[in-house]
Design a protein that fits this description.
With 155 residues, the protein is mainly β. The protein is 0% helix and 70% strand.
């Protein structure tokens, strides 16, 4: 896993004060395991977060109508098995299941106060999530064991 300390800033091109997003601290999980089933066969599992991002801006900032908050997270579970078919060649296959979620919040223009970017007439929120499954296969070639390995991967 990892600990991420995030900080985002906005610098207006036309001048003006810098805008700082709320700083965030995030734990990004990852756990992996491997089990040797025989001298030539091994299996592995992994649980991890391959993608993620979050930022929250002040409610009255100049870009409020573009973004107040954005969150994206993807978590994955993968299982794989590999077989050594030769002392220098191994093949493997696996399957991954992924779940993603996104939230986007932005200010809605206040039609009474005109198009002032800081004059929000409310907040709109869009959320969504998806689930997917994928497969992968690989060949590992060790032309110079302990020195040079090459892998070919299909996802």
């Amino acid at each position: 896993g990892a600990l991420v300390l995030a900080r985002s800033q906005f610098f207006p091109v036309a001048g003006g004060p810098r805008v700082d997003a709320e700083p965030g601290t995030y734990v990004v999980p990852s756990v992996f395991g491997r089990l040797r089933l025989s001298e030539r066969v091994a299996a592995g599992v992994g649980f991890y977060a391959p993608f993620g991002f979050a930022v929250r801006w002040p409610d009255d900032w100049v870009g409020a109508q573009s973004s107040l908050e954005t969150r994206l997270s993807v978590v994955s579970a993968t299982a794989a098995v590999a077989v050594a078919v030769h002392s220098k060649v191994s093949v493997g296959v696996g399957v991954s299941a992924l779940h993603g979620r996104v939230t986007i919040r932005a200010g809605i223009p206040n039609m009474v106060l005109g198009n002032d970017p800081g004059a929000s007439g409310g907040v709109g929120e869009l959320t969504g999530d998806a689930f997917g499954v994928g497969a992968h296969a690989a060949i590992l070639w060790r032309p110079l064991p302990e020195r040079l390995h090459a892998a070919f991967v299909w996802k």
